[in-house]
Design brief:
The complex is a heterodimer of chains A (about 525) and B (about 450). Chain A is an alpha/beta fold. Chain A is built from 18 helices and 24 strands. Chain A has 2 domains: about 5-245, P-loop containing nucleotide triphosphate hydrolases (Rossmann fold, 3-Layer(aba) Sandwich); about 260-505, 3-Layer(aba) Sandwich (Rossmann fold), CATH 3.40.50.300. The longest helix of chain A is centred in the middle third of the chain and has 16 residues, at about 180-195. Chain B has a two-stranded antiparallel ribbon with strand order 1-2. Classes of the chains: A alpha/beta (about 525), B mainly alpha (about 450).
């Protein structure tokens, strides 16, 4: 097949929601056998464009033409786009945890014989499909028993079962660790060789740079440009500039650290897995934090970073075995979350929708929710103080919402994260533990959140930052602990650290010479 | 959008604030409209019997105990649970109290305290299973429904037990006649006056708070209209209640209900504990990570429900002058229906006390009006069932269309914008298990 033949052309797509023009005059062309990335900030219109393409927004609700394999197409719904060979895999996977791999692959598309499901054929085909995506698990395994990485592969197998020609992946690696991401990206590359094109939406620019053949950049509902990765010499800064429409001098705000004395210390911390007692998720860990210092936790997914952080924060994870916590020289006891809050600890979870926010609430109630006594007289909440407290943070953190009465569900990821940060800043903590504080957030909001973190350190607070993105740790922290299989393997001043040394300590139990 | 309609919409939004306070997104405004419509309909259909003194007095004393249950039930439902045992607990507490007065000659005020204590004990029992053992409330209270119904019949030998005169006051008593003869019940008039003044003061205070918050406060005319309408309702209700047959006036059980409504509205809206109930029901894991002791909240909510059930049972016994084996049959369903008609969400986290009371009143007026019209109880049940289904159905449908409420329908262009900006329908796995197990 000649590389120049186009598989998909979207021409002048304009999609109007009442009161808002989500897409205006967007055009893009996907060549056969290519991986085409779409980049843009949150709310730029990427998802709307993909919904237009996959029939979520049916033909007639938008203007413009879609030409697929040389034919104009008018999809009524997702089913009709799937019949044409366009399959979309959403960020939040649509698999049913209680069903088996086979059942999930053929859900809604079950092979039948005499009106009954033909499980023999289904299983045989499932095995073939799993082999194609490189998954060796038993197809009878329930989805809930395999990891997110493998679940993503099952989704792709499901797409292949529908004889897909164009695969749309929305943030496919957002929830995956490094190894799984690599595997997935390799698979997408492999599919390309077999004639399946992909459109990929991702915030991870390094990945895009590696895997994409061309990149369409969308900003404010318009196509900004389409780059050819090979010819145009694309790099991350180039993409970011087009996405935000301005050149980011630096991806991290400037900062001169003012680091004080050690004020927080965790000694010999041991925590057991909550269900599997013989498994230690945190082993003999000792950490220190100085005033005004930003300390990074680097480690692969599952290394025990979150477990360590949450077990320090009022033993909210696992079964506590042993260890002591010192603050300002005195031993403190934090047996539950409310004691942790009282002792000036704060923990911003990596999963802001499941663990960070009550999505039913408005901004006001969310911001004050971790420290209600601060705005209460006795047991009675003072509405005015609540409003003033929340409003101050809405202004200082620049949360984009008409007022603090706005519901948090409707906010963008970055603004939701600011609400969570506000909630914990409202508790006036001395030590903030931030677990993946920029996950799923667009570039502009990331920059703002970095600024907030630096400002907190400048106030003399200690900050522990957990992140899977090494550039973020290298750009923001003063010192980095590496964690491998529940144990701290190294502690490196950021000035002396580079991705290679970090990765070495994150993937092996061998300690370098200790310099804590 | 023209300026006039914009203002009208703003006014509508502010009028909506008569109910629900911070929870203005639920459908309480719509259900209030429905209540008014039903009252008007029956008033016409029954030739004015619905809004007669005798019928109103009857309505209050006949349904006060269901509304008391609805208060407890909405808190249980906000926390994300359900309680099926309230009717049986009411019956059990009723028979225990009746027996205590008949067999042990306990004075009736002490017997009432004893009844509340029995409710608290039962609540602690069920709360322990729900909160600390982790058995779903549906199962715990289904068991409780059987256990306490049976226990009622064991204690009473499946017979009725009469209660003494003094005790009947809480269910069948009225505000006494005192002061000069005015042709009306003076205490009821006084009560009406106090409420009318309270309405004005409350609105005035609310305006001041809104102004100091600088948040969108309604134009003055909205407040004035609101106060005039509300006070007109209060005044006409007062005259109706005060002008009934001599010897009757506003029922004592109605006063108990009123005090409980005020108290629990305040608790749910303005206290830390109230916030914690919403937090646990909205997202338990997030609440726990914010320092909320969710087990304690669940325990207290279940216990509170049982205490209110015992109170409702005693009021019913007092009204019927005896405790019997069939007392409280099906009450749980009436209470649950009231809460859901009043705008609570099955998934927890949403609901208000005032909304549930309005929901309960819808059911009560419907029941009463159909009875006045001579409709048989078989058909009344069918109609009530349909009303519940349609009311919640309309709400669910509205939500699936991205409109939060019936009022939302009138403001739909605004909501559509919100939808367009994304994140309209999000699904995330409902939290199960504790956070300790969540991270793996």
């Amino acid at each position: 097949m000649p590389a120049s033949s186009t598989i998909l052309e979207m021409r002048s797509i304009t999609k109007q929601f009442p009161g808002v023009k989500a897409l205006s005059d967007v055009s893009m062309t996907v060549q056969a056998q290519e991986i085409h990335a779409i980049c843009g900030e949150n709310g730029a219109g990427k998802s709307t464009l993909m919904n237009v393409l996959s029939g979520v927004h049916p033909s007639g609700t938008f203007t413009g033409d879609i030409i697929f394999q040389g034919q104009p197409v008018h999809f009524k719904d997702i089913r009709s786009s799937e019949e044409a060979g366009i399959v979309i895999i959403h960020q939040e996977l649509a698999l049913i945890p209680e069903l088996s791999i086979t059942e999930n692959i053929f859900l809604g598309n079950e092979p039948t014989k005499h009106g009954a499901i033909d499980w023999v054929t289904a299983k045989k085909r499932a095995l073939e499909l799993l082999a194609r995506v490189g998954l060796e698990d038993d197809p009878d395994t329930q989805i809930k028993h395999i990891g997110v990485g493998k679940q993503q592969l099952v989704e792709i197998a499901k797409a292949l079962s529908k004889s897909v020609k164009l695969l749309i992946l929305d943030e496919p690696t957002a929830a995956l660790n490094e190894t799984d991401s690599h595997h997935l990206l390799d698979l997408i590359r492999g599919l390309k060789g077999k004639g399946i094109s992909s459109i990929m939406i991702s915030h991870k620019l390094s990945e895009i740079e590696q895997v994409a053949d061309s990149i369409t950049i969308i900003r404010d509902g318009r196509t900004i440009e389409t780059l050819n990765v090979k010819e145009d010499g694309v790099n991350e800064d180039r993409i970011i500039r087009a996405m935000v429409g301005r050149s980011l001098e630096s991806r991290f705000p400037d900062r001169t650290p003012h680091i004080g004395e050690i004020f927080f210390e965790v000694r010999d911390w041991n925590v057991q897995h909550p269900q599997v007692p013989e498994r230690m998720v945190v082993k003999n860990s000792t950490i220190t934090v100085r005033r005004g210092e930003i300390v990074g936790f680097a480690g692969l997914m599952g290394a025990g970073r979150t477990e360590l952080a949450m077990s320090i924060f009022g033993r909210s994870y696992g079964n506590f075995i042993s260890g002591r916590i010192f603050k300002d020289g005195d031993e403190i006891h934090v047996r539950n979350v409310s004691e942790a809050i009282d002792q000036g600890l704060a923990y911003v979870s990596e999963d802001r929708k499941a663990l960070g926010l009550n999505l039913i609430d408005d901004i006001k109630r969310s911001v004050v929710s971790a420290k209600l006594p601060k705005i209460s007289v006795g047991q009675v909440v003072n509405n005015l103080k609540e409003y003033e407290g929340a409003e101050a943070y809405r202004k200082s953190l620049r949360i984009k919402a008409p007022s603090v009465d706005a519901g948090v569900r409707k906010l963008s990821g970055g603004n939701q994260q600011k609400v969570v940060l506000a909630k914990w800043m409202f508790t006036e903590p001395d030590l903030l533990i931030l677990d993946e504080p920029t996950r799923g957030i667009d570039v502009g909001a990331k920059y703002e959140i970095y600024g907030i973190i630096q400002a907190l350190a400048a106030q003399g607070k200690g900050v522990i930052m957990i992140s899977s993105e090494l550039p973020e740790l290298l750009g923001l922290t003063d010192r980095i602990y590496t964690i491998f299989e529940g144990a701290i393997t190294d502690c490196i001043p950021t000035a002396e650290a580079d991705p290679e040394t970090l990765m070495k300590s994150m993937t092996s139990g061998k300690k370098r010479d200790q310099r804590i | 959008m023209s300026e006039a309609t914009g203002r009208a919409k703003g006014g509508l939004k502010d009028l909506k604030k008569i109910f629900g306070g911070g929870q203005s997104d639920v459908r309480q405004f719509g259900i209030l409209f429905s209540l008014i419509a039903i009252i008007v309909l029956f008033q016409i259909k029954t030739d004015g019997k619905t809004l007669s003194s005798g019928n109103l007095i009857n309505l209050v004393s006949q349904y006060s105990y269901i509304l008391i249950l609805a208060i407890g039930m909405v808190m249980v439902i906000i926390a994300g649970h359900i309680d099926l045992s309230v009717g049986s607990i009411a019956a059990f507490a009723g028979i225990v109290v009746a027996t205590s007065m008949q067999s042990w000659h306990l004075p009736w005020p002490l017997a009432i305290l004893f009844g509340l204590f029995v409710g608290a004990l039962i609540g602690a029992w069920q709360g322990w299973w729900v909160a600390y053992v982790g058995v779903p409330a549906f199962i715990v209270t289904l068991a409780g429904m059987l256990i306490f119904r049976g226990a009622n019949q064991v204690i009473g030998n499946a017979n009725t037990v009469p209660v003494p005169q003094g005790f009947t006051t809480i269910g069948a008593g009225y505000l006494p006649e005192i002061g000069p003869s005015t042709g009306y019940n003076n205490l009821t008039l006084l009560l009406g006056l106090v409420i009318a003044i309270a309405v004005v003061l409350k609105e005035w205070r609310a305006r001041r708070v809104q102004q100091s918050m600088g948040s969108a406060h309604a134009p003055l005319w909205v407040s004035i209209v609101k106060v005039v309408v509300l006070d007109a309702v209060v005044v006409s209700a007062t005259i109706l209640f005060a002008g009934g047959r001599v010897g009757t006036s506003f029922p004592i059980s109605g006063i108990i209900l009123g005090v409980l409504v005020l108290f629990y509205s305040f608790v749910t809206r303005n206290t830390i504990f109230g916030r914690h109930i919403y937090a646990v029901g909205g997202n338990r894991l997030a609440a726990e990570l914010s320092g909320v002791k969710s087990k304690r909240v669940n325990f207290l909510v279940m216990m509170n429900m049982a205490i209110l059930s015992a109170l409702a049972g005693m009021i019913f016994v007092a009204r019927s002058v005896a405790s019997g084996p069939q007392d409280g049959m099906g009450w749980e369903l009436d209470a649950i229906a009231a809460v859901f008609i009043g705008g609570a969400a099955v998934s927890g986290g949403i609901g208000t006390v005032t909304g549930s009371i309005v929901g309960g009143l819808v059911m009560a007026v419907l029941n009463n009006g159909l009875q006045l019209m001579g409709v048989g109880s078989d058909r009344v049940q069918i109609i009530k069932g349909m009303v519940l289904l349609v009311a919640v159905g309309v709400d669910v449908w509205n939500k699936s269309q991205g409109r939060p409420s019936i009022t939302g329908f009138l403001m739909r262009d605004r909501n559509a914008v919100v939808r367009a900006s994304g994140e309209g329908t999000e699904s995330y796995p409902a939290g199960s298990g504790s956070i300790k197990e969540k991270v793996t």
